[in-house]
Automatic annotation (TrEMBL):
Belongs to the aldehyde dehydrogenase family. One of its GO terms (cellular component) is mitochondrial matrix. This is Multifunctional fusion protein. It holds the Pfam family Aldedh. Residues 146-614 form the Aldehyde dehydrogenase domain. It is an enzyme of class 1 (oxidoreductase). The lineage of its organism: Eukaryota, Fungi, Dikarya, Ascomycota, Pezizomycotina. GO terms for molecular function: L-glutamate gamma-semialdehyde dehydrogenase activity. Its EC number is 1.2.1.88. The active site is at 383. One of its GO terms (biological process) is L-proline catabolic process to L-glutamate. It comes from Orbilia brochopaga. Transmembrane segments: none annotated. Pathway: Amino-acid degradation; L-proline degradation into L-glutamate; L-glutamate from L-proline: step 2/2.
Amino acid sequence: MLETLYRQNIIIRRSERTAATKLQSTLTIRVRVSSLDWLLSSMSSRLGIAFCRAANFKASLHRGARVSSFPRPSSSSLSSYPTARMTTLATFRLPALANEPNQHFAKGTAERQKLQDAIDALKSKGTIDIPVVVGGKNITTNDKVPQPMPSNHGTKLATCSQATKAHVDDAINSALAAREAWSTLPFADRAAIFLKAANLIGGKYRYEMLAATMLGQGKNAWQAEIDSAAEAVDFLKFNCAYAEQLYAQQPAFNSPGVWNRVEYRPLEGFVYAITPFNFTAIAANLPCAPALLGNVVVWKPSPSAVYSNYLLYNILLEAGLPPNVIQFVPGDAEAITDTVLAHKDFTALHFTGSTAVFRSLYGKIAKGVADGTYRSYPRIVGETGGKNFHVVHGSADVKNAVIHTVRGAFEYSGQKCSATSRLYVAESIWPEFKKQLIAETEALTVGPSENFQTFVGPVIHRGSFDKLKKVIDDAKDPKSNLTLITGGKYDDSTGFFIHPTVYQTDDPTHELFNRELFGPILTTYVYPDAEFQNILKAVDTTGGGYALTGSIFAQDREVIRYAEEKLRDSAGNFYVNCKCTGAVVGQQPFGGGRASGTNDKAGSMNLLLRFVNVRSLKEEFDSTPEVTYASNAV
């Protein structure tokens, strides 16, 4: 039996002639598209089946069938294209997957010159005005906040309009209005948008993204490359692959005459994405991962990364993202958040930032749940801070451990949530380790992030500089129980520069083993070799309650295995004979537990599961003959 499906009429005429009776019948079916859209898009989301327009499968109908043409829509909005969609005979397959290759910008190469040209071009633009973007419209306000260059804080890279409560309300309403059309768009079409965005970031806009991240967020060329180009591309591509795998996960068993299936629906409401300054790639992942799955998003970017984030947002639009799917809402964090968390359709938080802020958000959401504010229980996904460790055993390769420690502690001026800030070294190798550590650290070039020779650039802003300066000043007090090994310098005359600094203490519970600094300051404890087991207990019980990343350096396999076991809850990402930073999408899913976050593992399918609402469907093909059971018979 054919169901009548309705929104816009399509007339299909089919003539059938049987050989026996030579009778001719004409079947006219009036089909209206809205229900057809619903039915087929529902199948799409639960089965991962791609769809195409009715005109494309004309040949699959019986001879004599015809499909009336649609009037051409006058608007380019997504909802203006009510088209019938039918299944193809097979699922679409995504392009082959691989991590984005890195460029290295060696001296004399064309890639270095292209990057230099992009840096020069961005500098020549002067101060860039960044709007609030709500409902596809750019909004400029009188209230603006500058984004200074960390390497030259007297120069404003950009000024950014600040969203008002009315703008946030409009952003939420615009996102919710787009939800139905976006969520019913076939996965293949949604994926194509983000795959194209990845292609644009990795190609057409690569050097612009690098320049924006270098000048705006203080990263050197290599750190900008592995972040705003490679990792951003990887997040967009790998999320598509993980979504494809997720949709394909269906019940393995069906009773006779039964078809079971699972639909991975988007969440009911809107997602709130709060992105940090320190990774442009995270700014790509936090709003885009939920959106890929059919969710709509209100995105609040960091004021210290707003230019690169705005560039990223415009790349998404160029890739075909409908304007209302992601709303770009810079502004006062507390004011925006209070408006968002008071809305009944708030359905998920996707956050990267400080532990203190995340705990505050968690508490506000919990209160909203207790007060019955929300339609459903909001999903909370957060990655916060870390007090990350390197443990160096007496059997370690000293040179390797030193190189990885210097990189782990001082790349991007220690402003990675995974940066090494706690160091534990066996007494037997400490003299040689210390000698090499000082030599490698003092050889690092400190300077403006756009200079290719720079290894350690500035910290992000005045607040960070002042906090780190105070730590260095306080360490000069004899009561601090800290011995300066190297560094201890700072300079804010032009940019916010903190020189890489190493301290040693004889107290494994010292404050600097528990307090996250988010800067290029490393604290060291030298332990007696015979106390290795005890030092692992100290590593686990200190660290400020964080459990993000950590590393063991040893050649003795039993030692490695022992450390892996004793520190199994101390880090969400654990490394052997390499630094505790630099997780690669698709290779090391990233996230930590305890105070470090919800450990939902960015760069994995597990993260995507947090942004779908799973529905089980059961269909029986046979009729049930009676109410009573066989056991009821007397």
